[in-house]
Design a protein that fits this description.
By secondary structure, this protein is mainly alpha-helical. The protein is built from 18 helices and no strands. Helix 3 runs parallel beside helix 5.
Length: 434
């Protein structure tokens, strides 16, 4: 595959796309749970609806990533998917707000969320594949650090915006419950409008500005079955995908149920009133987490290129897991802030260090023409945890008598189980230099 070397223009274009997609996922993480709490108090029901993201992401990126590898188009292999997905995702974000504002029933609101998840996943694999398509192996850690930085900056921006609007709504209405105050003002629509603008604008930017390298000739293409079979047969790919599933499941336990965790720790129960009371705090804590992720992302990319893939991933995983072990004993807001801040540093290192792994393994095994399908599977192993965490996490909480705190040690255990898999990957630190 022909490349032009490291290009800051390409990296920043991909980073902008990552920023926009992160605003979309942050909108979902920040507002969907409290909005669903207006319909039901069941952790299992809310978790199952939010888990639809994982179910959709389990199949769509795998299939469309596979087909994008062989797409013959003057517009490239990835950009047509990015354009279509970005436009639909922006429209879907507006539909989620409209559905809630119109007072649709629970099933109707769940369907609009499902359409949003589908739209976002239409171009997940193609977005991921563009980086190794355009950046040489020895430069991917640096590129990953920048892209990860902007991705999590998107989360920070959206959480900060929503938190600011809730504070403003509370001041104007006198309502103590943040999400209820926001719903009583015109401010509720703002995060949805801003997210839609970013999603559509970034997709247009990448489509018209970022140029893909010439597509390689694929002489012996794999069938879909052969592709899936090859992943199972290659132990390095299998170990990495399994490890990623575990650490993302740990993350999703906290991300999906953060409001319930906060309400339980601070008020003793996760009732609708208590969850809505901690919405503003939850958004600010998500913003804090993302700030520390940003602080960990760039060093994580540098460590990946300079000090080794295996060490950087394990270091990030351990820093992320340790505050979760402490989480079982946390009782105050200050302790929550410290734990999430430290965990964010580890998560930033882990994300920057893990993103380039698939591209480097494909370089090692001379399969770089297939980045779409392998990053499609990469995304599936990030989506499966959403499905599992939403359903299993909700069930665990209900079985534990609404004790959301139990998710902390379970999440830490999952991360620690993933680390030996990374340590025993044979080709992790072997990649061709650009």
């Amino acid at each position: 595959m022909k490349r032009k070397g490291f290009s800051w223009g390409v990296v920043l274009g991909l980073a902008l796309l990552g920023f926009s997609r992160s605003t979309g996922w942050a909108l979902n993480k920040g507002l969907s749970f409290p909005l669903l709490s207006s319909y039901t108090g069941s952790a299992f029901v809310k978790g199952t609806i939010l888990a639809a993201e994982g179910f959709i992401g389990l199949f769509i990126p795998v299939l469309l990533g596979y087909y994008s590898d062989t797409l013959k188009s003057k517009h490239g292999r990835r950009r047509p998917f990015i354009m279509a997905g970005g436009l639909l995702a922006g429209i879907a974000a507006l539909m989620v707000y409209t559905g809630y504002a119109m007072g649709v029933p629970l099933w109707g609101f769940a369907l609009t969320l499902g359409f949003f998840y589908l739209s976002m996943h239409l171009y997940t694999a193609q977005y991921r594949a563009l980086m190794p398509d355009t950046i040489e192996s020895g430069q991917r850690g640096k590129a990953s650090g920048v892209i990860t930085l902007l991705e999590w900056a998107g989360n920070l921006f959206l959480f900060g915006l929503a938190g600011f609007l809730i504070a403003k709504a509370v001041a104007e209405t006198g309502e103590n419950e943040g999400i209820k105050a926001l719903a009583q003002t015109p401010y509720l629509k703002v995060p949805f409008l801003v997210t839609a603008a970013f999603l559509i604008g970034a997709a247009l930017f990448v489509y018209f500005i970022v140029k893909e390298p010439e597509a390689p000739e694929i002489e012996e293409d794999e069938s879909l079955w052969d592709y899936l079979k090859s992943i199972v047969e290659n132990r390095d790919f299998l170990k990495f995908y399994a490890a990623q599933t575990l650490w993302w499941m740990s993350f999703e336990f906290i991300a999906i149920f953060l409001y319930g965790i906060l309400a339980y720790i601070l008020y003793g129960s996760a009732t609708e009133e208590n969850i809505k009371a901690v919405t503003s705090l939850g958004l600010y804590l998500m913003a804090l987490f993302n700030i520390t992720v940003l602080l960990g992302a760039l060093p994580g990319g540098i460590i990946y290129d300079k000090l080794g893939r295996r060490l950087s991933i394990i270091l990030g995983g351990l820093i992320f897991a340790l505050p979760q072990l402490w989480g079982w004993f946390i009782k105050s807001q200050t302790e929550i802030v410290i734990a999430l801040g430290v965990a964010g540093l580890g998560w930033g290192v882990l994300m920057a260090a893990s993103y380039p792994v698939i591209g480097d393994l494909l370089t090692k095994f001379e399969r770089e023409a297939f980045t779409g399908r392998y990053y499609g599977f990469f995304e599936a192993t990030r989506s499966l945890p959403v499905l599992l965490a939403g359903i299993i996490g909700g069930a665990i909480v209900d079985l534990a008598g609404e004790n959301y705190r139990v998710l902390f040690p379970i999440g830490a255990l999952l991360v620690l189980l993933a680390m030996p898999m990374i340590w025993h990957m044979k080709n992790l630190d072997v990649a061709e230099e650009g």
